[in-house]
Amino acid sequence: MSSEKITLYEFAGSCWANAPKIALSETGFKKDKDVEWVSINLAEGKNFEPEYLKINPAGTVPTLIAKGEKYQDSISAVSQIVKLAPHPPRVDAHTSTSIIEEIHASAHDPNATLLFAINDEDRKAKVNGLPKGFLEGRQKALDKLAENPPAEFKDFLTKKKADNQQLLNFYITEPDEATKQAHYSQGKNLWKSVGIALRGVVTQALQKNGGPFAGGEEPSEIDYHIITWLSRTITNTGVEPGSPASVAIPKLQEYTGGHNIDPVVGKYWDAWIARPSFKDNGIH
Ligand SMILES: N[C@@H](CCC(=O)N[C@@H](CS)C(=O)NCC(=O)O)C(=O)O
């Protein structure tokens, strides 16, 4: 690495910020010497403050700054990390960009499976767990920021405020049955899409080179995205983060319609949870 540090805007609880974190660890960056870490507290809506929106107009983490250039999403951030890496992965992932994009599809985004309930029991768990508190923290920030917003961010903040309030209302009021069923149907569709991705592109990618990783024996760029998605998806089923495949995969199978999941997925999971990059970054 050159003497100039790269800057990573991230948050410990963010799913997609885990992709560049894993990439940095896997490719030989030194956490303190090479990287300036900036935490943006999503649970307090710090990502909606104008100072951060100037850095990333979508108000999302991660953002990477390297050699004066900004990379405002995890796909471009990871790709840049790999380019600058002291020890880049031996397998080149440029042929896998469509799989990486598929992993990131909003139809099965882990942030959505985290926040959308699938039935009354799940709704109750989300009221008593992280989702309600997270939505409340964001709402407090959005209410304040939308009072007197800079003109350039007015529309963005007004929409975020309304969308977040609608979701929060689902958890802090007693919605009527039709509202509940419409919400649960969205939640179920998300998990259906998780199942399709898992049994489709993910399984195919892991079968291709004999495993355990997509490129074979060592993780490569595509894996930094697959494991980021898989780990938060597994956590969203309610298992303890870092649980072995024997615990995690049956739960994943249950949430995704009950059909078998190819053993390559369990092997992949067990290979990842043993890696320092997974443990040191507290991936979940
Ligand atoms: N496509 C983006 C998605 C990033 C994203 O959704 N980040 C979440 C955290 S994992 C976030 O910052 N959410 C804030 C919000 O939507 O308010 C990427 O890959 O970086």
TrEMBL record:
Residues 4-89 form the GST N-terminal domain. PROSITE patterns: GST_NTER. SUPFAM superfamilies: GST C-terminal domain-like (SSF47616), Thioredoxin-like (SSF52833). This is GST N-terminal domain-containing protein.
